[in-house]
Amino acid sequence: MSGSQRLAPSTIRNYHLTLRMFCDYLTDPRYEWPTVCRDRFGQVPTQVCHEWNTVAHLNDYEGNPARRPLSYDELQALFDFLDERVDRVARSGRKGALAAMRDAEMIKTAYAFGLRRNELCRLEIADLRPNPHVAEWGTYGSVHVRYGKAVRGGVPRRRTVLSVPEFDWAIEGLRQWVEEARPLLNPGDHPALWVTERLTRVTLRYLDKRFNALRCEAGLDPALTLHCLRHSYVTHLVEFGYPERFVQEQAGHAFASTTAIYASVSNDFKHQTLRAALARVYGAPKED
User: Fold this and answer.
1) Is residue 80 part of a domain?
2) Is the residue at 240 inside a domain?
3) Cα(47)–Cα(267) distance, rounded to whole angstroms?
4) Overall number of domains in the chain
5) What is the pLDDT of residues 18-61, one digit of tens each?
6) Are 260 and 150 in contact (CB under 8 A)?
7) Residue 151 and residue 195: Cα distance in Å, rounded?
8) Residue 192 DSSP symbol
9) Residue 45 sits in which domain range?
């Protein structure tokens, strides 16, 4: 609960819940454990985990407050660094240019489609789908997520994330990776979108390690994680004026309250919204 290695409240609560359920099992007369304990030890087990001595779920969001959406300047700095890194490695003549490009496109795709880490790693070529409303985007108009976050005891949830015009810059990079760079690795019939030089699928561990290293090299806040790009995606869709239901479907949230937690609009957006509301109610300000 304290110190530099303290656990998250949600983790501690899960531990408490596990202990409480085990004690419920021990004290349930249907399993006859109380009778066995009384006959063998002369004592009867009792529940020791109660509401007053275990961690309660009091807040809707229990994440690290330091993890926030990236600002537009931070995103621009990150993407510029990734592009410059690809050019630098390619000019050096050493191996690693394809890996650098793959890493850059993975990070950009995570933001442009608001994907979770596992959703990003499990993408396959077959998951790239067209958008019927924008034929010129080809097969890069949407991404079919087949390994979305599952509810406890359920299977992964599926959804289709549509490309939006504000993020159309990511489509060209994704097309370049699939049609020009990826074939140089000779992946054969490997289905994964993101393959390594050894023709294996990029793992979550590698993705986390690589993003952390690139973030530090770009000089960004150490508290930012790859998941913060997903928060940025939701926040920016809200700022672009997309309806709440559309944002919720794009992010794959079961409840609108979860989407609201992810959104953290900027002060500029708040000022613009308030200015528009004042103009709507009181009329446009008169010019001198």
Assistant:
1) yes
2) yes
3) 50
4) 2
5) 999 999 999 999 999 999 999 999 999 999 998 888 887 666 55
6) no
7) 28
8) B
9) 1-58
Asked whether residue 6 falls in the same domain as residue 76, the answer is no
Q: If you search the block for the tokens 């409240």, which residue do you land on?
A: 9
Q: What pTM value is reported for the model?
A: 0.76
For residue 27 the two structure tokens come to: 């004290």
pLDDT in tens, 133-154: 888 999 999 999 999 988 777 8
Q: For the CA atoms of the chain, what is the radius of gyration?
A: 25
Select from 72, 22, 66 the least CA-distant residue to 48: 22
* 114 and 218 fall within a common domain: yes
Token pair in block for residue 137: 């985007």
Which of helix, strand or coil describes residue 95?
coil
What would the two tokens of residue 11 be? Answer: 């983790």
106 lies in the same domain as 138: yes
21 and 157 share one domain: no
Count of C-beta atoms within a 10 Å radius of residue 79: 18
Nearest to 207 by CA among 189, 222, 225: 225
Nearest to 178 by CA among 109, 131, 116, 118: 109
Cα–Cα dist 236/156, whole Å: 26
Helix segments in 203-282, DSSP class H: 204-217, 227-239, 244-251, 256-262, 267-282
CATH for 212: 1.10.443.10
| Token pair in block for residue 173 | 């990079």
Q: Of the candidates 163, 154, 126, which has an alpha carbon nearest to the alpha carbon of residue 254?
A: 154
Q: What is the dihedral of CA 140, 194, 160, 151, to 10 degrees?
A: -170
